[in-house]
Write a structure and sequence with these properties.
The protein is built from 15 helices and 20 strands. The chain is an alpha+beta fold. The radius of gyration is 26 Å and the shape is elongated. The termini are far apart. It comes from Myxococcus llanfairpwllgwyngyllgogerychwyrndrobwllllantysiliogogogochensis.
């Protein structure tokens, strides 16, 4: 049996497929190992969560969605497999199957590498033996295939496996060697990243492999950068994949949700925060950080971003010293980020497009009063672009319409994909047996695989559409108003299985 929680993990990672998502996400940016940043960010999150009617993703919820952790250690899982083996030898095959399934769920959450792969192989081989004893030859072959598809030269130990089992294993090996393969190509935005399938290291990017068609767990690692765990579907003649490890590797869940931010990368961090909010399905992302001006006190700052529009809604902060933030200042900042107003003068807001920690350094140029309380209108992320574009041309307005139209088409397509995926979820729920998918139920397995495909499509549509809308809006603001806006039409269509979008206009 396949545990249905695999499907729900997919839906949690891509909530547009069915699970309701919290409205807000709090993520720190900067040095993710900074104890002061972690302490104040955690205090801010606790203050926000304790406020009435606040739907905020918790730190544990963030970790579970992006980096699910095992609840058992390697040693615990080995003991569980030993117990399952005892059940097998004592002909308690049903209990053995349940114990192995539960162990596999936890094994798939372990850090990738040889230790995880060894446990995985032991579990699958025991599964194969147990199913064979139950007279389920097809399920037994599936378990053995899980090992052979990535290690085709694997040999069974003659001290533990009967000759008939080894003969069947070798026959399956020959069949798999003759089976048609899928060309799987994996690339990363960080070169020479380690590629893991089902926890086994297969090589480094750029990597091209011939693999059997099916579903695999994919992870990329380079140094401390670790990709989000994902299930991929290898199918057709080839399956090309590009993983933005520069983005995914900057995200960490411990000790606090954080985006690693090198100096001078504010725009990139805000862009990554928008993408992260889209992945988790929240409406707003609150990025908190410690600002250290070249002169003057430190600031604990918060920037509120709208995910759908890619906008910076508001920004403010308070002066801070030491690890602990003043409770009154934290409460005032929570009021500010949730309402746009603050009754306390402890919180200084971003006035006229310039943050107070910047004003302290450049007050001679801006003339803005330090501690001003005016709230600027929402501005798009690329403020630096606006400063440099002194003489925009009409072509920018044309480009903005194209980007906005394309982005809206992609987001509209995402809505259609969500609708189609929900139908799959509803159909799949009807075929469950005690919350699980029977491995013999081909239709249920097809529905599960279809959900995996739609999740990949949805991720691309959300990320691409959001980026296009944000870029189009920036160009729109930079360009002069034409006499008559170019007519642009956007269309989204579906035939029940595929989605198409069209853009037309006269420029």
């Amino acid at each position: 049996m396949t545990d249905f929680r695999i499907v729900f993990l997919l839906l949690a990672t891509l909530p547009a497929l069915g699970l309701a998502a919290p409205r807000r996400l709090v993520v720190a940016s900067g040095d993710c190992k900074d104890a002061e940043l972690g302490s104040q960010a955690n205090a801010f999150l606790n203050a926000l969560v304790s406020s009435p009617e606040q739907d905020v993703l918790s730190a544990s919820g963030f970790s579970e969605r992006l980096f699910p952790q095992p609840t058992k250690s390697y040693e615990d899982l080995q003991r569980q497999l030993d117990s399952a083996q005892d059940h097998f030898y004592e002909s308690r095959n049903g209990k053995a199957a349940v114990a192995i399934d539960e162990a596999l769920q936890q094994i798939n959450r372990l850090p990738v590498g040889d230790a995880r792969w060894k446990l995985y192989v032991n579990a699958q081989l025991l599964h194969g033996l147990n199913y064979r004893a139950m007279g389920k030859q097809k399920e037994s072959d599936t378990a053995f295939r899980s090992v052979l598809r990535l290690q085709p030269t694997y040999e069974l130990d003659p001290d533990y496996f009967a000759p008939s089992v080894r003969q069947g294993f070798d026959k399956l090996r020959r069949e798999l060697n003759l089976a048609r393969k899928v060309k799987l190509s994996v690339k990363s935005t960080l070169p020479t990243s380690d590629v893991y399938l089902d926890g086994l290291k297969m090589g480094q990017t750029p990597l091209t492999l011939d693999v059997l068609a099916g579903t695999y767990d994919l992870n990329l690692v380079k140094g401390e950068a670790i990709s989000f765990p994902r299930q991929i579907q290898a199918q057709g003649a080839d399956t090309p994949l590009l993983v933005d490890l520069a983005y995914e590797g900057s995200v960490s869940a411990t000790p606090f949700p954080c985006l690693a931010a090198p100096e001078g990368s504010d725009e990139r961090i805000l862009s990554h925060a928008i993408r992260l909010g889209g992945t988790l399905g929240v409406e707003e992302v609150i990025v908190v950080r410690l600002e250290r001006p070249s002169s003057g006190p430190k600031w604990f700052a918060a920037t509120v971003l709208n995910v759908e529009g890619g906008q910076k809604l508001r920004e403010g902060g308070f002066k801070t010293q030491g690890l602990d933030a003043p409770a009154e200042a934290l409460s005032a900042l929570v009021d500010f980020v949730t309402t746009g107003r603050s009754p306390s003068n402890l919180v200084v807001m971003n006035a006229n497009g310039r943050a107070p920690w910047e004003q302290a350094v450049t007050s001679d140029k801006s003339g803005a009063p330090h501690g001003g309380m005016d709230i600027s209108a929402p501005d798009l992320l690329s403020d630096g672009i606006a400063d440099s574009a002194d003489r925009p041309t009409p072509a920018l307005r044309v480009a903005s319409y194209v980007l906005l139209g394309t982005g809206m088409a992609a987001l509209g397509g995402a809505g259609v994909v969500r609708f189609l995926a929900q139908k799959n979820v509803d159909d799949l729920e009807k075929r469950l047996e005690n919350g699980r998918i029977l491995s013999t139920d081909r239709e249920a397995l097809r529905l599960r695989n279809s959900l995996v495909q739609k999740s990949n499509v949805l991720t691309g549509l959300l990320a691409g559409g959001g980026a296009a809308v944000a870029a189009g809006a920036v160009l729109f603001l930079l360009s002069p108003s034409p006499q008559a806006p170019p007519p642009v039409s956007v269309g989204v269509a579906t035939n029940g299985e595929e989605v198409s979008a069209s853009l037309s206009g006269t420029f």
